[in-house]
Amino acid sequence: MFEAGGVPRAALTLQLGSYAGFVGAHWWNLQDAALRCESEVQEQERKICPDVLYRAGRTLSRQETYTPRLILMDLKGSLNSLKQEGCLYGDTKIDTSVAWQGNLMTHQEDPPAKNLFLQDLSKLEGGMSSDGGFSPRALPLSKDVSQLPTQLHVSQKGHQLEGSVRVWSDYLRVRLHPRSIFMIHQYNDDGESSQLEAFGQGESLLHDPTYLEELEDRLHFYVEECDYLQGFQILCDLNNGFSGVGAKVTELLHDEYSGRGILTWGLTPVIHNVGVSWKDFYRLMNTVLGIVHLSSHSSLFCPLSLNGSLGLKPEAPVTLPYVHYDASLNYHSSAILATALDTLSAPYRLHSSQFSMVQLADAFNSSGRKVVAAGTAVPFPMAYGQSLPDALCSYQLAVPWTPLSSCGEQKDSCCFAQSVVLRGIGKENHISTSYLIQGPCKVLPPYPQFFSALLNKQGFLLDKLPSCSTAVESIPVLTALQSSPALYSALYRLYKELHQVDVRRWASFFSAGIELYDFQEALHELRTLSQCYKTSSELDESEDEADTD
Amino acid sequence: MSAVKALNPKAEVARAQAALAVNISAARGLQDVLRTNLGPKGTMKMLVSGAGEIKLTKDGNVLLHEMQIQHPTASLIAKVATAQDDITGDGTTSNVLIIGELLKQADLYISEGLHPRIVTEGFEAAKEKALEVLEKVKVTKEMDRETLVDVARTSLRTKVHAELADILTEAVVDAVLAIRKPDEPIDLYMVEIMEMKHKSETETALIRGLVLDHGARHPDMKKRVEDAYILTCNVSLEYEKTEVSSGFFYKSAEEREKLVKAERKFIEDRVNKIIDLKKRVCGDSNKGFIVINQKGIDPFSLDALAKEGIVALRRAKRRNMERLTLACGGMAMNSVDDINADCLGHAGLVYEYVLGEEKFTFIEKCDNPRSVTLLIRGPNKHTLMQIKDAVRDGLRAVKNAIEDGCVVPGAGALEVAIADALVKHKPNVKGRAQFGVQAFADALLIIPKVLAQNSGYDPQETLVKVLAEYAESGQLIGVDLNTGEPMVPAAAGIWDNYNVKKQLLHSCTVIASNILLVDEIMRAGMSSLKG
């Protein structure tokens, strides 16, 4: 009764790291596609509330804007053609007036080449000047979607972006608020020197008062204006130094905003394994420290990756039955994770329910089980007109989804707690699931078209190959978040892999801030964490292990 | 053949002369990039990124951070130079110039067969003497406002144009003087720097109070309050529904409702306590009452406060809490249980300013503000950044001067004096190390030379005039950049920081010596990790 009905319980998103940028860019694009299609669907079907993750604003020239409530950290060089300030709030005229009366020397970098998608996008939004100089004022996305030009589907024609995507900004369709992009200038995105590759480096970055103040200022900007803040969702790279940044950020949020939910998704790109090198140990140590610290400061932590496992020699990436993705492309793998995220996060983004992040986390948190595993079926295989029970029956006891948390295949569907969301299935086949959302997941360009030819435009299965292939525009998606016993072996395996080696061999890892003692402590915590997921059947087995330690 | 070659045939190796050549060319390269920066007549650099973003700077430190330096030696020098800035807030450009010049001068002797070790011994002897000269020429005096203004102006004129520099000079000096406490180190943290993209850069001003970048979130709250009590607190005034939702404490919907109500009541009680205090202290007078809370305030609480004529700001930044009490007085309260009139601060004027979607709250006319705000204005982002960088350096310069208790004449006067003293000192140094001393003396003269050159004068001609004038008058003589003639910087009010110069002499000598002593460079698939 005191919760004003209809007031969105706002959440702030943080993206830390470049793979987080990849996943995030796809995710915002998906949401953007849903927003643009909104005018087509009927009101009651619109169940995911965009106001949870977006904010309405206004530029200095009084134009309305609708931008993600987002803070995004990445390294120098990852923006390519994107301006750090975005172009929504740009100056009305190009102002190069200079507060200096003496000599002036100009160093101008060549504008980077834009891929076909970005060229189309800028044409669409106000005509890119052909000289490629300063970006023109883009058409701001107003909250009133009906004003949007209808030719937005111009860029429907499939772009083969696979070859031209180097960084996430190469396919980001959404316009960002100037306070969103937070560049770390100390380290380079690529190249040999100055890489952010160890947990300790990331952690010490936020000991620097300039970065810390800047982060606090940005948090303040987004949080202060929220009447009801439900919490933070954090996308964080686990494999590099950003796991340390994430550890610090979650710690800060935990201290500063008590009572808010902090949902952390630990991301790892697909790892191509050619032999174990020091880099794999770095990755593993970052992952372990990340899991331990992120889970301890967050309300809920979920690793997300298409890798079979996160260990030194990761198993082959998972396969999805109706998606032919190229595992070597971050552009592809991140699209799948983003699709899963868009559906996984649905419970706390709904219009109708008052369910919040804190409640979602609480449902899983019993007995210290802060880590959960995710699974998804992208797309959920169902023939058009088939009923949901029929579609599910074919699975018998097996789970109808592919694991996304690198915990290996599950033997059975037993778990401590779970949240299952199914979207894009028509009203006619109603059954009781945890969450059933009618709107499907819109997969408009620049989403990669990597679907099996057996899918129709709405993402439903056909029984035979169609004569001409059509682009898939939307898909039904099933996701599950589970606190499952499979996490025991996954976490314990990471512990064992590092427990067996003498980490002092990588002295430079420890020169960057973290002490050996802290590391051993974290390793121990990982073990304790893994024990939370032990079921009685595994108990005897692990006691033996304890003896041999 | 180098041993590493036997082990790793791919290793690249440069030895002795070749190694030195590699290092010197890197140092000279860096020097060439930065040399046009030096002094108030240096060249401003506009960096335009591929995406069209503009960065405007003349500050060596900022430039070094912007460059993606790949050469390991150059990156080493850049790190030392930027460390200089971290410690003292100035001197990056001079640092790079002197290191480059030391290596160039040393190379002359080394190419004639002098061992680098001997040169570095000479450098060391020269540094000792130079520090002695520095101690001798430093001017210890009372750091009154006038001197501080001179110091700040010397620093700021090299960063922004003269008109703006004079405005900033007054602002930074008054800011530091306001927050200074006797016998305590100066905490520049108590000077808040706030930017507003608005009006022109010359509207930048010192606000004797605080400017917060947020405003009241209730339409009925007043936009302008005079003579106001300020309550600074860190108390949650929002219903967080944590207790109710997280447990399974309720059996039925009614019971849940009851729990929700109870918790809501809890928040209401807190709000009422604040309202009570307001009624007590303000009575029927016209005085205003402002609540600045570090935690959240939800719409219901805002509504209740607004009805009582209280202006409330939520989610104040943590770092502003201390500043608030220093600016307005009073105490930051962590609970409303025992609030009374003594906890309150006071401000003569509080008003809100709206700029697009951003709101600013000015808290001004404080009785005895010990925390102040430098409000930077400018028409565009790059100007704001340029002023912000300049203001930071200006503040550091004033702080350094106060803490040193002394200043050093600028305009190249110190370098001329040291060079002269070193030449006279040379015979006291034994053996070939004399050449090192000579190299050091010649290297320091790069500063007056580049100053003259950047102002459009012939460097040699100016240098000869200055040296002659120095020898003749015995006074410290620098370069007048408006005429190219010698002048007395002390009379013109050109003062540099003592500790900047001291740090400069130390770090340049150490790094130049280290680079000279490098005998072999190899590159053999090293990991790129750096601390």
UniProtKB/TrEMBL annotation, chain B:
GO terms for cellular component: chaperonin-containing T-complex. It holds the Pfam family Cpn60_TCP1. It is found in: Cytoplasm. Its main location: cytoplasm. It comes from the Eukaryota. PROSITE patterns: TCP1_1 (PS00750), TCP1_2 (PS00751), TCP1_3 (PS00995). InterPro entries: Chap_CCT_zeta (IPR012722), Chaperone_TCP-1 (IPR017998), Chaperonin_TCP-1_CS (IPR002194), Cpn60/GroEL/TCP-1 (IPR002423), GroEL-like_apical_dom_sf (IPR027409), GROEL-like_equatorial_sf (IPR027413), TCP-1-like_intermed_sf (IPR027410), TCP-1_chaperonin (IPR053374). GO terms for molecular function: ATP binding; ATP hydrolysis activity; ATP-dependent protein folding chaperone; unfolded protein binding. Belongs to the TCP-1 chaperonin family. NCBIfam families: chap_CCT_zeta (TIGR02347), thermosome_beta (NF041083). This is Chaperonin containing TCP1 subunit 6B. The gene is CCT6B.
